[in-house]
Specification:
Layout (H helix, E strand, L loop, with lengths): L3 H14 L5 H5 L2 H21 L2 H23 L8 H15 L1 H4 L7 H15 L16 H14 L16 H17 L4 H19 L7
Length: about 220
Amino acid sequence: MTYPKLDELVRTVARLRGPGGCAWDAEQTHESLVQYLVEESYELIEALEAGTRDDIIEELGDVLYQVLFHADLAAHTPGEEFDIEVVAERMTAKMIGRHPHVFGDPVAHTADDVVAVWDELKAVEKPGRTSVLDGIPQGMPALALADKVIGRAQKIGVLDKDAIAAIPMQTEDELGGLLLAIVASAKAQGLDAERALRSTLRDLQGEIRHAEIPAGGQ
């Protein structure tokens, strides 16, 4: 199967960034584009959660364009010099390597089995990681970061999954109302909910790293 429209988009990016193209596009850097990648990602999330088919197509295109833009930029940046083909090649190899139960002999019948396989493979791929927290981007929104950190804390027994499920709720609507009420109450009392959660997460991550210290190694 070929994708002529995708190839056409790649050529369009190259034309815009090349000689005689768009002056703004030509001046951009990886760093200057970060704000647009974040914005487009959030717009895609909104489209996936509440948009129409056309909204999703448009926002997927905007995120795809950011990927192609960064790849074209790298192709013309000394010391980087890779293009979208290299990105695609690397990602294909990564996905095949991460799915030996599909492309190889190991068996993984359930989603939990797949996660276990991924964890084992990542441990081999990234031997320099010494903590379950390694690889978590600290710049994530506080709630998303909390979800990640809590998952890692449960993995090593710092938090008990059943013990922390103490607030009764059955739907995301109920959860959303509860979160909104917490933020509203914090605002009314002059408190910053985002900063408060990040501060608590730093403490929790400290507990996790302390728990990972081998016995006798303190």
